[in-house]
Design a protein that fits this description.
Blueprint lengths: L2 H8 L3 H15 L1 H10 L23 H15 L2 H13 L4 H23 L1 H5 L3 H9 L4 H30 L6 H18 L1 H26 L13 H20 L18 H30 L3 H6 L4 H8 L5 H30 L3 H4 L3 H18 L4 H31 L19 H17 L1 E2 L2 E2 L1 H6 L6 H23 L3
Antiparallel strand pairs: 1-2
Length: 504
Amino acid sequence: MRPDVEKEHASPSVRSLTQSSSDQEAVDSPRQSKYQRWARCIKGLETQGIEPVPVEDRMKANAASYFHMLLMWFSMGMALNNIVVGSIGTLVMHLSFLDAALCAIFGNLLGNVFVGYMSTWGPESGNRTLIVARYFMGYYPSMICVVLNVLTNLGYGMINAMVGGQLLSKVSGGNVSVVLGIVIVSLASLVVATLGMRIFHVYERYAWFPQLIVLCILAGSAGPQFDFQTSSVGSLREVNTKRAAFFSMCLSVSLAWVPLAADYYVYHPPTTSRWKTWSATTAGGSLSMILTILLGVGLGSGVSNTPKWASLYDGTPGSLLMAGYDRLGVFGKICAVINVVAVVSNNAPGAYSMAMNFQMLGEMWRKIPRPVFTVFSTAVYMSCAIGGRNFLYQIFKNFLPLIGYWVVIWFTISVEEDVLFKRCRGYDWSVWNNRDKLPVGIAATFAFIVGWAGAIVGMNQAYYKGPVAQAVGESCDLGIWLGMGFAGLAFPAMRVVELKVIGR
Protein backbone atom coordinates (compact mmCIF):
# COMPACT_ATOMS: atom_id res chain seq x y z
CA MET A 1 0.00 0.00 0.00
CA ARG A 2 1.28 3.45 -0.90
CA PRO A 3 2.25 5.69 2.07
CA ASP A 4 -0.30 8.33 1.16
CA VAL A 5 -3.06 5.75 0.88
CA GLU A 6 -2.00 4.17 4.14
CA LYS A 7 -2.13 7.56 5.83
CA GLU A 8 -5.56 8.19 4.43
CA HIS A 9 -6.85 4.93 5.87
CA ALA A 10 -5.15 5.54 9.21
CA SER A 11 -7.04 8.72 9.98
CA PRO A 12 -10.18 10.47 8.71
CA SER A 13 -9.60 12.63 5.67
CA VAL A 14 -10.05 16.36 5.61
CA ARG A 15 -12.99 15.88 3.30
CA SER A 16 -14.79 13.51 5.67
CA LEU A 17 -14.16 15.75 8.67
CA THR A 18 -15.39 18.85 6.85
CA GLN A 19 -18.38 17.08 5.36
CA SER A 20 -19.32 15.54 8.69
CA SER A 21 -19.23 18.92 10.41
CA SER A 22 -21.13 20.76 7.70
CA ASP A 23 -23.76 18.07 7.31
CA GLN A 24 -24.34 17.94 11.04
CA GLU A 25 -24.64 21.71 11.19
CA ALA A 26 -27.03 21.84 8.25
CA VAL A 27 -29.32 19.23 9.75
CA ASP A 28 -29.19 20.16 13.43
CA SER A 29 -28.45 23.88 13.60
CA PRO A 30 -30.72 25.99 11.38
CA ARG A 31 -30.68 28.93 13.79
CA GLN A 32 -26.91 28.74 13.99
CA SER A 33 -26.75 28.84 10.18
CA LYS A 34 -28.89 31.97 10.07
CA TYR A 35 -26.60 33.56 12.65
CA GLN A 36 -23.55 32.58 10.64
CA ARG A 37 -24.96 34.15 7.47
CA TRP A 38 -25.67 37.37 9.37
CA ALA A 39 -22.35 37.36 11.20
CA ARG A 40 -20.34 37.04 7.99
CA CYS A 41 -21.47 40.56 7.13
CA ILE A 42 -19.29 41.84 10.00
CA LYS A 43 -15.66 41.60 9.00
CA GLY A 44 -13.56 39.61 11.46
CA LEU A 45 -16.48 38.28 13.54
CA GLU A 46 -16.07 34.58 14.21
CA THR A 47 -18.92 32.38 12.99
CA GLN A 48 -17.47 29.02 14.05
CA GLY A 49 -19.36 27.07 16.70
CA ILE A 50 -18.18 23.99 18.57
CA GLU A 51 -17.78 22.01 15.34
CA PRO A 52 -14.19 21.01 14.46
CA VAL A 53 -12.45 23.67 12.40
CA PRO A 54 -11.78 22.21 8.93
CA VAL A 55 -8.11 22.01 7.99
CA GLU A 56 -8.57 24.29 4.98
CA ASP A 57 -9.96 27.03 7.24
CA ARG A 58 -6.95 27.07 9.56
CA MET A 59 -3.90 29.31 9.54
CA LYS A 60 -0.71 28.39 7.73
CA ALA A 61 2.04 26.98 9.92
CA ASN A 62 5.12 29.14 10.31
CA ALA A 63 7.82 29.87 12.88
CA ALA A 64 6.05 33.05 14.04
CA SER A 65 3.02 31.01 15.16
CA TYR A 66 4.85 29.71 18.22
CA PHE A 67 6.01 33.16 19.18
CA HIS A 68 2.41 34.37 18.91
CA MET A 69 1.33 31.50 21.16
CA LEU A 70 3.83 32.60 23.78
CA LEU A 71 2.71 36.23 23.56
CA MET A 72 -0.96 35.27 23.83
CA TRP A 73 -0.43 33.31 27.04
CA PHE A 74 1.92 35.96 28.37
CA SER A 75 -0.88 38.48 27.88
CA MET A 76 -3.66 36.32 29.33
CA GLY A 77 -1.65 35.40 32.42
CA MET A 78 -0.70 38.97 33.28
CA ALA A 79 -3.83 39.49 35.34
CA LEU A 80 -4.58 41.53 38.44
CA ASN A 81 -6.31 38.61 40.12
CA ASN A 82 -2.90 36.89 40.25
CA ILE A 83 -1.61 39.85 42.26
CA VAL A 84 -4.52 39.29 44.65
CA VAL A 85 -3.57 35.61 45.01
CA GLY A 86 0.04 36.51 45.72
CA SER A 87 -0.96 38.97 48.41
CA ILE A 88 -2.92 36.24 50.22
CA GLY A 89 0.34 34.39 50.91
CA THR A 90 1.92 37.22 52.89
CA LEU A 91 -1.03 39.37 53.89
CA VAL A 92 -3.53 36.69 54.94
CA MET A 93 -1.46 33.54 55.59
CA HIS A 94 1.49 35.52 57.02
CA LEU A 95 4.15 33.60 55.13
CA SER A 96 7.56 35.15 54.60
CA PHE A 97 8.38 36.62 51.20
CA LEU A 98 10.75 33.73 50.43
CA ASP A 99 8.27 31.01 51.43
CA ALA A 100 5.41 32.58 49.48
CA ALA A 101 7.63 33.28 46.45
CA LEU A 102 8.87 29.69 46.23
CA CYS A 103 5.32 28.35 46.48
CA ALA A 104 4.22 30.76 43.75
CA ILE A 105 7.04 29.87 41.37
CA PHE A 106 6.85 26.10 41.61
CA GLY A 107 3.06 25.93 41.91
CA ASN A 108 2.60 27.95 38.73
CA LEU A 109 5.30 26.06 36.84
CA LEU A 110 3.61 22.75 37.59
CA GLY A 111 0.16 24.02 36.66
CA ASN A 112 1.36 25.51 33.38
CA VAL A 113 2.99 22.21 32.43
CA PHE A 114 -0.55 20.77 32.57
CA VAL A 115 -1.91 23.70 30.55
CA GLY A 116 0.78 23.20 27.90
CA TYR A 117 -0.08 19.51 27.55
CA MET A 118 -3.78 20.14 27.09
CA SER A 119 -3.20 22.98 24.61
CA THR A 120 -1.61 20.58 22.11
CA TRP A 121 -4.98 18.99 21.36
CA GLY A 122 -6.27 22.14 19.64
CA PRO A 123 -4.10 21.98 16.49
CA GLU A 124 -4.22 18.19 16.36
CA SER A 125 -8.01 17.86 16.46
CA GLY A 126 -9.46 21.27 15.58
CA ASN A 127 -11.74 20.73 18.59
CA ARG A 128 -12.28 22.75 21.75
CA THR A 129 -10.82 21.30 24.94
CA LEU A 130 -14.03 19.88 26.38
CA ILE A 131 -14.99 18.38 23.03
CA VAL A 132 -11.68 16.51 23.16
CA ALA A 133 -12.75 15.46 26.67
CA ARG A 134 -15.47 13.36 25.03
CA TYR A 135 -12.72 11.07 23.71
CA PHE A 136 -11.35 10.63 27.25
CA MET A 137 -14.55 10.47 29.32
CA GLY A 138 -17.40 9.80 26.91
CA TYR A 139 -20.20 11.99 25.56
CA TYR A 140 -22.40 12.30 28.63
CA PRO A 141 -19.76 12.13 31.42
CA SER A 142 -17.80 14.95 29.75
CA MET A 143 -20.82 17.19 30.29
CA ILE A 144 -20.07 17.07 34.02
CA CYS A 145 -16.79 18.84 33.24
CA VAL A 146 -18.60 21.26 30.93
CA VAL A 147 -20.96 22.32 33.73
CA LEU A 148 -18.10 22.60 36.22
CA ASN A 149 -16.10 24.68 33.77
CA VAL A 150 -19.03 27.04 33.21
CA LEU A 151 -19.23 27.55 36.98
CA THR A 152 -15.44 28.02 37.14
CA ASN A 153 -15.48 30.71 34.47
CA LEU A 154 -18.47 32.45 36.01
CA GLY A 155 -16.51 32.56 39.26
CA TYR A 156 -13.39 33.91 37.59
CA GLY A 157 -15.42 36.42 35.61
CA MET A 158 -16.95 37.64 38.86
CA ILE A 159 -13.52 37.95 40.52
CA ASN A 160 -11.96 39.75 37.56
CA ALA A 161 -14.85 42.19 37.38
CA MET A 162 -14.59 42.91 41.11
CA VAL A 163 -10.83 43.53 40.95
CA GLY A 164 -11.20 45.82 37.93
CA GLY A 165 -14.15 47.65 39.44
CA GLN A 166 -12.36 48.27 42.73
CA LEU A 167 -9.28 49.55 40.94
CA LEU A 168 -11.26 51.96 38.75
CA SER A 169 -13.03 53.26 41.84
CA LYS A 170 -9.72 53.85 43.67
CA VAL A 171 -8.13 55.55 40.66
CA SER A 172 -11.06 57.94 40.30
CA GLY A 173 -11.04 58.81 43.98
CA GLY A 174 -14.52 57.37 44.36
CA ASN A 175 -16.05 59.32 41.45
CA VAL A 176 -16.53 56.00 39.67
CA SER A 177 -18.31 53.65 42.02
CA VAL A 178 -17.21 50.03 42.36
CA VAL A 179 -20.50 48.98 40.78
CA LEU A 180 -19.94 51.17 37.72
CA GLY A 181 -16.36 49.93 37.47
CA ILE A 182 -17.61 46.34 37.48
CA VAL A 183 -20.06 47.15 34.68
CA ILE A 184 -17.33 48.81 32.57
CA VAL A 185 -14.94 45.86 32.91
CA SER A 186 -17.70 43.33 32.18
CA LEU A 187 -18.91 45.12 29.04
CA ALA A 188 -15.37 45.54 27.70
CA SER A 189 -14.78 41.79 28.18
CA LEU A 190 -18.10 41.09 26.47
CA VAL A 191 -17.08 42.97 23.32
CA VAL A 192 -13.77 41.11 22.93
CA ALA A 193 -15.35 37.71 23.68
CA THR A 194 -18.20 38.29 21.21
CA LEU A 195 -15.92 39.20 18.31
CA GLY A 196 -14.34 35.77 18.52
CA MET A 197 -11.00 34.03 18.18
CA ARG A 198 -9.41 35.92 15.29
CA ILE A 199 -9.92 39.36 16.85
CA PHE A 200 -9.04 37.91 20.23
CA HIS A 201 -5.67 36.68 18.94
CA VAL A 202 -4.84 40.13 17.55
CA TYR A 203 -5.85 41.81 20.82
CA GLU A 204 -3.85 39.46 23.03
CA ARG A 205 -0.82 39.72 20.75
CA TYR A 206 -0.32 43.35 21.73
CA ALA A 207 -2.12 43.77 25.08
CA TRP A 208 0.86 42.38 27.01
CA PHE A 209 3.22 45.22 26.12
CA PRO A 210 1.66 48.13 28.08
CA GLN A 211 0.90 45.72 30.93
CA LEU A 212 4.52 44.65 31.23
CA ILE A 213 5.66 48.27 31.27
CA VAL A 214 3.31 49.34 34.07
CA LEU A 215 4.05 46.22 36.12
CA CYS A 216 7.76 46.99 35.86
CA ILE A 217 6.96 50.54 36.99
CA LEU A 218 4.96 49.10 39.90
CA ALA A 219 7.87 46.86 40.86
CA GLY A 220 10.26 49.80 40.76
CA SER A 221 7.93 52.03 42.76
CA ALA A 222 6.85 49.51 45.39
CA GLY A 223 9.91 47.23 45.51
CA PRO A 224 11.82 49.21 48.15
CA GLN A 225 8.91 48.63 50.59
CA PHE A 226 8.78 44.86 50.10
CA ASP A 227 9.59 43.01 53.32
CA PHE A 228 12.28 40.40 52.64
CA GLN A 229 13.28 39.94 56.28
CA THR A 230 10.22 38.91 58.31
CA SER A 231 9.90 35.17 58.88
CA SER A 232 6.74 33.13 58.44
CA VAL A 233 4.42 33.34 61.45
CA GLY A 234 3.69 30.18 63.45
CA SER A 235 5.29 26.95 64.57
CA LEU A 236 7.16 24.78 62.06
CA ARG A 237 4.12 22.55 61.61
CA GLU A 238 1.81 25.52 61.08
CA VAL A 239 4.19 27.10 58.59
CA ASN A 240 4.50 23.85 56.64
CA THR A 241 0.74 23.48 56.38
CA LYS A 242 0.42 27.08 55.19
CA ARG A 243 3.14 26.49 52.62
CA ALA A 244 1.24 23.47 51.30
CA ALA A 245 -2.02 25.42 51.19
CA PHE A 246 -0.49 28.37 49.35
CA PHE A 247 1.34 26.09 46.92
CA SER A 248 -2.00 24.43 46.07
CA MET A 249 -3.64 27.84 45.68
CA CYS A 250 -0.97 29.01 43.22
CA LEU A 251 -1.27 25.70 41.38
CA SER A 252 -5.04 26.21 41.10
CA VAL A 253 -4.52 29.60 39.44
CA SER A 254 -2.88 27.97 36.44
CA LEU A 255 -5.02 24.81 36.57
CA ALA A 256 -8.07 26.94 35.83
CA TRP A 257 -6.73 27.36 32.27
CA VAL A 258 -6.44 23.62 31.59
CA PRO A 259 -10.09 23.11 30.45
CA LEU A 260 -9.70 26.09 28.06
CA ALA A 261 -6.19 25.53 26.75
CA ALA A 262 -6.96 23.88 23.40
CA ASP A 263 -9.75 26.36 22.58
CA TYR A 264 -7.30 29.03 21.45
CA TYR A 265 -5.38 26.81 19.01
CA VAL A 266 -8.15 25.29 16.91
CA TYR A 267 -7.19 27.54 13.99
CA HIS A 268 -3.63 26.17 13.95
CA PRO A 269 -2.97 23.34 11.45
CA PRO A 270 -2.50 19.70 12.55
CA THR A 271 1.13 19.91 11.36
CA THR A 272 1.85 22.23 14.30
CA SER A 273 4.57 20.76 16.50
CA ARG A 274 3.21 19.41 19.77
CA TRP A 275 6.52 19.96 21.53
CA LYS A 276 6.78 23.59 20.39
CA THR A 277 3.12 24.23 21.24
CA TRP A 278 3.64 22.82 24.72
CA SER A 279 6.84 24.83 25.22
CA ALA A 280 5.37 28.15 24.03
CA THR A 281 2.22 27.74 26.12
CA THR A 282 4.05 26.67 29.27
CA ALA A 283 6.65 29.42 28.97
CA GLY A 284 4.18 32.22 28.21
CA GLY A 285 1.77 31.33 30.99
CA SER A 286 4.47 30.65 33.57
CA LEU A 287 6.38 33.87 32.99
CA SER A 288 3.37 36.16 33.28
CA MET A 289 1.66 34.36 36.18
CA ILE A 290 4.84 34.12 38.22
CA LEU A 291 5.60 37.79 37.60
CA THR A 292 2.17 38.97 38.76
CA ILE A 293 1.92 36.62 41.74
CA LEU A 294 5.39 37.65 42.96
CA LEU A 295 4.31 41.28 42.77
CA GLY A 296 1.31 40.36 44.91
CA VAL A 297 3.56 38.57 47.40
CA GLY A 298 5.73 41.67 47.67
CA LEU A 299 2.82 44.09 47.98
CA GLY A 300 1.25 41.96 50.70
CA SER A 301 4.52 41.85 52.64
CA GLY A 302 4.88 45.63 52.46
CA VAL A 303 1.58 46.46 54.17
CA SER A 304 2.81 45.45 57.62
CA ASN A 305 6.24 46.96 56.94
CA THR A 306 5.17 50.39 55.65
CA PRO A 307 2.92 52.64 57.78
CA LYS A 308 1.82 54.66 54.73
CA TRP A 309 0.69 51.51 52.96
CA ALA A 310 -1.11 50.30 56.07
CA SER A 311 -3.08 53.56 56.19
CA LEU A 312 -4.00 53.32 52.48
CA TYR A 313 -4.94 49.65 52.58
CA ASP A 314 -8.63 49.17 53.39
CA GLY A 315 -8.89 45.43 52.79
CA THR A 316 -9.46 45.62 49.02
CA PRO A 317 -7.05 44.69 46.19
CA GLY A 318 -7.65 48.09 44.61
CA SER A 319 -6.24 49.88 47.66
CA LEU A 320 -3.28 47.47 47.74
CA LEU A 321 -2.32 48.34 44.16
CA MET A 322 -2.80 52.06 44.71
CA ALA A 323 -0.52 51.83 47.75
CA GLY A 324 2.16 50.41 45.46
CA TYR A 325 1.69 53.32 43.04
CA ASP A 326 1.44 55.92 45.80
CA ARG A 327 4.90 57.43 45.25
CA LEU A 328 4.10 58.18 41.60
CA GLY A 329 1.13 60.49 42.12
CA VAL A 330 -0.98 61.11 39.01
CA PHE A 331 1.31 58.98 36.87
CA GLY A 332 0.61 56.06 39.19
CA LYS A 333 -3.12 56.49 38.59
CA ILE A 334 -2.54 56.40 34.84
CA CYS A 335 -0.60 53.16 35.26
CA ALA A 336 -3.44 51.71 37.33
CA VAL A 337 -5.93 52.50 34.54
CA ILE A 338 -3.72 50.59 32.12
CA ASN A 339 -3.79 47.69 34.59
CA VAL A 340 -7.54 47.47 34.07
CA VAL A 341 -6.83 46.46 30.46
CA ALA A 342 -5.14 43.36 31.90
CA VAL A 343 -8.44 42.43 33.52
CA VAL A 344 -10.08 42.41 30.09
CA SER A 345 -7.16 40.39 28.64
CA ASN A 346 -7.72 37.77 31.33
CA ASN A 347 -11.50 37.88 31.41
CA ALA A 348 -12.38 37.77 27.70
CA PRO A 349 -10.90 34.28 27.02
CA GLY A 350 -12.99 32.73 29.78
CA ALA A 351 -16.15 34.46 28.57
CA TYR A 352 -15.46 33.23 25.03
CA SER A 353 -14.87 29.62 26.09
CA MET A 354 -17.84 29.68 28.46
CA ALA A 355 -20.18 30.43 25.54
CA MET A 356 -18.72 27.43 23.70
CA ASN A 357 -19.25 25.28 26.80
CA PHE A 358 -22.96 26.05 26.82
CA GLN A 359 -23.20 24.78 23.24
CA MET A 360 -21.59 21.50 24.30
CA LEU A 361 -24.54 20.60 26.53
CA GLY A 362 -26.59 19.10 23.69
CA GLU A 363 -28.09 19.61 20.25
CA MET A 364 -30.72 22.07 21.47
CA TRP A 365 -27.99 24.28 22.93
CA ARG A 366 -25.99 24.19 19.69
CA LYS A 367 -28.83 25.89 17.85
CA ILE A 368 -28.47 29.01 19.97
CA PRO A 369 -25.89 31.50 18.61
CA ARG A 370 -22.74 31.84 20.70
CA PRO A 371 -23.17 35.59 21.47
CA VAL A 372 -26.43 34.82 23.29
CA PHE A 373 -24.51 32.76 25.82
CA THR A 374 -21.76 35.37 26.01
CA VAL A 375 -24.29 38.06 26.93
CA PHE A 376 -26.06 35.77 29.40
CA SER A 377 -22.88 34.67 31.20
CA THR A 378 -21.62 38.27 31.35
CA ALA A 379 -24.89 39.37 32.96
CA VAL A 380 -24.64 36.55 35.52
CA TYR A 381 -21.06 37.14 36.64
CA MET A 382 -21.51 40.92 36.57
CA SER A 383 -24.50 40.62 38.90
CA CYS A 384 -22.61 38.27 41.22
CA ALA A 385 -19.63 40.64 41.24
CA ILE A 386 -21.82 43.54 42.26
CA GLY A 387 -23.32 41.49 45.07
CA GLY A 388 -20.00 40.11 46.35
CA ARG A 389 -17.78 43.15 45.83
CA ASN A 390 -17.00 43.48 49.55
CA PHE A 391 -15.89 39.86 50.08
CA LEU A 392 -13.19 39.34 47.47
CA TYR A 393 -10.50 37.77 49.67
CA GLN A 394 -12.97 35.32 51.21
CA ILE A 395 -14.24 34.33 47.77
CA PHE A 396 -10.70 33.80 46.50
CA LYS A 397 -9.70 31.58 49.43
CA ASN A 398 -12.82 29.42 49.14
CA PHE A 399 -13.17 29.36 45.36
CA LEU A 400 -9.68 28.63 44.02
CA PRO A 401 -9.16 25.24 45.72
CA LEU A 402 -12.46 23.93 44.32
CA ILE A 403 -11.21 24.65 40.79
CA GLY A 404 -8.05 22.71 41.48
CA TYR A 405 -9.96 19.69 42.78
CA TRP A 406 -12.09 18.97 39.75
CA VAL A 407 -9.54 20.04 37.12
CA VAL A 408 -6.73 17.86 38.43
CA ILE A 409 -9.07 14.84 38.72
CA TRP A 410 -10.26 15.27 35.14
CA PHE A 411 -6.72 15.93 33.88
CA THR A 412 -5.43 12.75 35.54
CA ILE A 413 -8.13 10.68 33.82
CA SER A 414 -7.42 12.36 30.48
CA VAL A 415 -3.67 11.71 30.60
CA GLU A 416 -4.14 8.07 31.60
CA GLU A 417 -6.70 7.49 28.85
CA ASP A 418 -4.38 9.03 26.27
CA VAL A 419 -1.11 7.42 27.38
CA LEU A 420 -2.36 3.99 28.46
CA PHE A 421 -5.27 3.30 26.12
CA LYS A 422 -5.59 5.69 23.17
CA ARG A 423 -2.04 6.59 22.06
CA CYS A 424 -1.46 3.31 20.19
CA ARG A 425 -4.91 3.29 18.52
CA GLY A 426 -5.20 6.91 17.48
CA TYR A 427 -8.24 9.19 17.29
CA ASP A 428 -11.02 9.54 14.77
CA TRP A 429 -11.82 13.24 15.10
CA SER A 430 -14.84 12.96 12.78
CA VAL A 431 -16.91 11.18 15.48
CA TRP A 432 -16.73 14.11 17.93
CA ASN A 433 -20.55 14.26 18.12
CA ASN A 434 -21.34 10.56 17.70
CA ARG A 435 -22.10 9.18 21.13
CA ASP A 436 -22.27 5.61 19.74
CA LYS A 437 -18.58 5.67 18.78
CA LEU A 438 -17.19 7.63 21.70
CA PRO A 439 -16.29 5.91 25.00
CA VAL A 440 -19.24 5.06 27.22
CA GLY A 441 -17.46 6.67 30.15
CA ILE A 442 -18.34 4.28 32.99
CA ALA A 443 -14.72 3.96 34.10
CA ALA A 444 -14.12 7.71 33.82
CA THR A 445 -17.25 8.52 35.81
CA PHE A 446 -16.30 6.04 38.51
CA ALA A 447 -12.75 7.44 38.73
CA PHE A 448 -14.11 10.99 38.79
CA ILE A 449 -16.35 10.17 41.76
CA VAL A 450 -13.52 8.34 43.56
CA GLY A 451 -11.25 11.32 42.91
CA TRP A 452 -13.78 13.66 44.45
CA ALA A 453 -13.97 11.37 47.49
CA GLY A 454 -10.22 11.78 47.86
CA ALA A 455 -10.49 15.55 47.49
CA ILE A 456 -13.21 15.73 50.13
CA VAL A 457 -11.33 13.74 52.77
CA GLY A 458 -8.24 15.88 52.14
CA MET A 459 -9.81 19.32 51.84
CA ASN A 460 -9.49 22.00 54.49
CA GLN A 461 -11.86 24.88 53.82
CA ALA A 462 -14.00 27.20 55.91
CA TYR A 463 -17.10 25.18 55.07
CA TYR A 464 -15.60 21.68 55.57
CA LYS A 465 -12.46 20.01 56.90
CA GLY A 466 -11.78 16.46 55.80
CA PRO A 467 -10.52 13.82 58.25
CA VAL A 468 -7.12 13.51 56.55
CA ALA A 469 -6.59 17.27 56.57
CA GLN A 470 -7.52 17.44 60.25
CA ALA A 471 -5.06 14.68 61.07
CA VAL A 472 -2.20 16.41 59.24
CA GLY A 473 -2.63 19.87 60.71
CA GLU A 474 -4.48 23.15 60.68
CA SER A 475 -4.78 24.94 57.32
CA CYS A 476 -3.30 22.01 55.40
CA ASP A 477 -5.33 21.38 52.25
CA LEU A 478 -4.46 18.08 50.56
CA GLY A 479 -7.57 17.94 48.38
CA ILE A 480 -5.73 18.37 45.06
CA TRP A 481 -3.18 15.68 45.80
CA LEU A 482 -5.57 13.09 47.21
CA GLY A 483 -8.02 13.75 44.38
CA MET A 484 -5.28 13.15 41.82
CA GLY A 485 -4.06 10.03 43.59
CA PHE A 486 -7.48 8.44 44.11
CA ALA A 487 -8.55 9.06 40.49
CA GLY A 488 -5.20 7.90 39.12
CA LEU A 489 -5.46 4.59 40.97
CA ALA A 490 -9.14 3.95 40.24
CA PHE A 491 -9.25 4.65 36.49
CA PRO A 492 -6.86 2.17 34.77
CA ALA A 493 -8.30 -1.03 36.24
CA MET A 494 -11.90 0.05 35.60
CA ARG A 495 -11.02 1.13 32.06
CA VAL A 496 -9.52 -2.30 31.29
CA VAL A 497 -12.75 -3.94 32.44
CA GLU A 498 -14.85 -1.45 30.46
CA LEU A 499 -12.90 -2.13 27.26
CA LYS A 500 -13.22 -5.91 27.68
CA VAL A 501 -16.94 -5.83 28.44
CA ILE A 502 -18.16 -2.98 26.22
CA GLY A 503 -15.32 -2.62 23.74
CA ARG A 504 -15.09 1.18 23.63
